[in-house]
Specification:
Layout lengths: L2 E8 L3 E10 L2 E11 L3 E2 L2 E2 L2 H19 L5 E5 L6 E10 L7 H15 L4 E13 L3 E3 L9 E12 H13 L3 E6 L1 H9 L8 E7 L4 E7 L2 E8 L3 H12 L3 H10 L13 E5 L5 E5 H26 L6 E5 L8 H9 L3 E3 L13 H17 L8 H9 L12 H9 L3
Parallel strand pairs: 1-6, 6-11, 12-17, 17-18
Antiparallel strand pairs: 1-2, 2-3, 4-5, 7-10, 8-9, 8-10, 12-13, 13-14, 15-16
Helix pairs in contact: 1-3, 4-9, 5-6, 5-7, 7-8
Length: 413
């Protein structure tokens, strides 16, 4: 066992925590859990104490799986009012051979000169580097040079997006190793060589919101949030049949289909409604209710994509918990045609798309470490030995500002 990384995605309905091991450049899942969320509405923390208890429960569950304490994490913060900006930073190379330290200095120059006072730095995504104002490359480490210019995408959000998450994690004794966004995590989970040269979008259909992220050559360039998601389907079913939302959610997830194509009116679900009467719900009717709302959500996302760019879209990937619904591919095709596909997470043991953000943020974190030439793990040596020797069954494919804290980690200060 070489390096272990953990990532948390705090959603309105569930909190997802993923722990992975990087061994010989291969990512293995050690543990993943999804626990009910409380105190969170539309991705924002509305009741800190309830949210704190929910997050605490999530960590406890994973720690019971692993047998060691998880006290460092990459956290996804709310994407509201996220901004993406290409920046440039320049530095003098210290020892004539470019190192990760020089890359950090160039990034820092660009960030400091472009960061607005009311914004918090979330991530820096490399575009390219120029050595001595001539040679352009993706990774300049080990090359001779006197000056280094870095070009990158800087991602920022309002300060409250970061502090609302950071304060709760810190109160639980969890160190924030890095922060990220859904737009960065999702592209990390589904990135391919084709995406690196294309304009496209990823739609993440969550519980209360649907996030539309636009990408250019693999770089996130814009984010829009639609205030509609899986819970709206629950409400539709609840209204249609006068049943509780908990029962409605059960019907959505275990009985109805996302498209009526394969639904059967002879399939019956019996339930007691809010009037105390036993009713029978047939599969075709329930699926039509689900399909109608899903089509509306995807149509709204399609409109947002059209507003974000007038360039031809070469791919659309849909992820999030709702995308796991049976026959969802038919609903997707009816609205978006053949250009759209359902995301497929390749890591064995965590195939459910609700984990795409948490897993992708680990992939992004590892890539930044590699570029900077840094060696880092989120577990102590003793804990790594416990994990290595444990007989437990893992899901294995084997007063300081937050900006200062992120700089402290990111720039090694």
């Amino acid at each position: 066992m070489e390096h272990v990384y953990s990532s948390i995605d705090i959603g309105s309905d569930t909190i997802k925590l993923v722990v992975c091991e990087l061994y010989k450049n291969h990512l293995n899942l050690l543990a993943a859990t999804s626990t009910p969320a409380k105190g969170i509405k539309k991705g924002l923390i509305t009741d800190p104490e309830k949210a704190r208890e929910s997050i605490k429960s999530t960590f406890k569950e994973v720690e019971e799986m692993l047998g060691v304490k998880v006290d460092k994490v990459i956290a996804s913060v709310p994407s509201y009012l996220a901004e993406y900006k290409i920046i440039k930073g320049v530095t003098e190379v210290e020892e004539d051979i470019i190192s990760g330290k020089d890359i950090n200095k160039a990034y820092k120059d660009g960030i400091v000169n472009n960061l607005e006072p009311d914004k918090e730095f979330v991530a820096i995504i490399p575009v390219d580097f120029k050595i001595n104002d001539k040679t352009i490359m993706k990774d300049p480490k080990g090359f001779p040079g006197n000056t280094l210019m870095a070009r990158a995408m800087m991602v920022t959000v309002p300060k409250k997006n970061v502090y609302s998450v950071a304060s709760i994690l810190e109160s639980l004794g969890i160190e924030l190793a890095d922060i990220s966004l859904g737009s960065i995590g999702d592209i990390g989970s589904f990135r391919t060589k084709e995406i690196e040269n294309s304009v496209g979008a990823i739609i993440n259909v969550g519980s209360e919101t649907t996030t539309v992220n636009l990408y250019n050559k693999g770089l996130p360039v814009n984010t829009k949030i639609i205030n509609m998601g899986g819970k709206d389907i629950d409400k539709d079913l609840s209204y249609m049949y006068r049943i509780g939302t908990k029962e409605a959610k059960n019907i959505k997830e275990k009985f109805a289909l996302a498209h009526k194509k394969n639904a059967n009116a002879n399939d019956i679900y019996e339930v007691t409604n809010l009037d105390g009467k036993k009713i029978k719900i047939n599969g075709l009717e329930a699926s039509e209710v689900v399909m109608s709302r899903m089509e509306e959500i995807i149509s709204l996302a399609k409109n947002e994509i059209n507003h974000l760019t007038n360039r031809p879209i070469q791919y659309i990937i849909v992820t999030g918990g709702v995308s796991n619904a049976l026959n969802f591919e038919y609903t997707l095709a009816s609205v978006l045609g053949n250009s759209a596909s359902i995301g497929k997470i390749k890591l064995i043991g965590v195939r459910n798309n609700k984990y795409s953000t948490a897993l992708g943020n680990i992939i992004y974190f590892i890539s930044t470490l590699k570029l900077k030439g840094q060696n880092y793990t989120m577990l102590s040596k003793d804990d790594m030995e416990v994990l290595s020797s444990s007989s437990k069954h893992f899901l294995n494919t084997s007063s300081e500002t937050m900006l200062g804290k992120v700089f402290g980690y990111f720039f090694g200060e």
